[in-house]
Amino acid sequence: MGGPPYDCLANPLGAVRLAFEKAIGSELETPSTHPSAFNGKDWGALELFRHFLFQESGLSQVPILNPKTLRWVQPNSLVRYRGMIQDMLGNEFYAGAYKDGNLWRTNKFMDVSQYPMGSSPDMCIWERRLLYCVPVPGQNSWTEPSSEMEPNWSSQTREKRRRMDDEDNDPMDLVPDDEIKSSPITKKMREDGLPSPSQSRDTKTTSSSSITSTFQSVDEDNLPCLVKIYDSPESELKLNDVFEFIGVLTFDSELAVEKDDNDELSNSFYDDALVHLPPNKVPRLHCLIHRKLAVQDFLPGSPIIEPKPHLVKETREALFRHLTAVLGNDEVAAHFVLLHLLSKVHARVDDVAVGKLSLNLTGLNKESVSVFGTRLSDTFKNLLPFTNCMPLTLEYLNIASLAPKKDYQANRLVPGVLQLPEGSHLMVDETRLESGSLNSTGIENTKLLKNLIEFQKVEYDFQYYKVEMATDVQLLIFSEGKSNIVPADVIVPFQPSCLESTEMPVAEALEAWRWYLATVRSLPHSIGSEIQKVVEDDLVAARQMDRSLGSRDFSRWLTMARLISSSFGETSLSKEHWEMAKEMERLRRERLK
């Protein structure tokens, strides 16, 4: 038979074991390399998976784990999970390598040992990190993969395993994964009492068939995942980052029942943090490969296109016309909304988040926001990967949990509304805010919102102290007058001239606009020495004419000029676009009079 003696997709643990045996020379009575040398290191397994995923185009065959695919995906198979790191649960100890008679075996990328480990002094204790990940808050449906059909390998794999059972193969064969009984805890792994390999074979049919019932209580719209990380520097993975994790899915259908029958287990067998993450609700993924995702990674099927000037200008013009129609033919507001959508924090100087451009559209009330606010919300959901809305009422401010808080009893970070990943958009509707008194929660929430919009930072409450976390969230505020609770960088009085509804753009247009926004936002930008002198002279002249202008105004002008240049696909500021920024500012200020 040709081909490799393992299946990276259906039997990833077989590939891991094969690489382990090859690396240490396990067929020898004295291993050529002691397993302890691989503490915190790869022994060649990851290269097998990188070759399969990226050189053999295997990535597209790996199912993305979500509530729908969870109905048919096989345990101990290779899966992908896309999500935000919502909490970091610390490190977990496990028996990474141990002796089974004269043979060295490994538990890496597993929850529980396949064979009894005994109490061998040769056992190698290693560490892995635990990350609690959730679907990205506000992730829109167009970013999800279009196909969720069960891949062909599933039926083939089941047939192959049936043949192996009929032949009564040795348990050391390379496709015994259904024999591995998984568990969510390895920090206190059992050293005896484990079922023998033959007993494990008797239970594998139950294990495979119970995958659907195991996760029957999973939220249809929200599937968290406990990701176990190996051999990666801590600096590579940060709170609120969005990642794609590729690894081995494990579960235990019996563990939740055991816990219900004997509460004492929660104080002995289970790790404190994992007690609150039952495996029938939170699947486990042992990560082999991970990669941080950018907005471009959520554009379905979009080829990499060079942002040539003529293509960018055409796409910009079409998007601007659409925004103008959505906003009732208010071209000034449409110009500012476009710049707002392109804004991002590209640098931090002391406490200044350079590049942000929050926008406050004023002149809106409950009735008009139900029309134009809804239109903009629907438009943004079709254009941006992550969008969120906040109804800013007095009651909401007084009861909402905006900041994440540490629960030391559960050893968990309780999420807050403002725990959002980089690149998120937040729409705040202030039109329903009425006069009244704020309680202590409301006062704290008001401070959090002001801190977010001014400094792009959110304070996380760790009970005994607070930690400021940098973020990058676009904020758009609807209000009747200038918002005092969420003071934006730019205030634009909204002046629509018609109420006609707009047609839904065709799919090709939406794909082009998504590509445009993601690509243009990522372009570098600079200001040449010649244009810099022009800008400085104009700012001095403006200050002489209006003494009320300050550094915040000038910073806003420069941000607008940079965004205008970027919107045309240019990476350096030109005099033409500097003049456009000045004209937009003049039109805006006229409306404020």
From TrEMBL:
Q: Does the keyword Nucleus apply?
A: yes
Q: What InterPro entries would the database entry show?
A: MCM_complex-bd (IPR019140)
Q: Where is this region: Disordered?
A: 141-215
Tell where it localizes: Nucleus
Alphabetically list the UniProt keywords. Nucleus
Record GO biological process? DNA-templated DNA replication
Q: What is this protein called?
A: Mini-chromosome maintenance complex-binding protein isoform X1
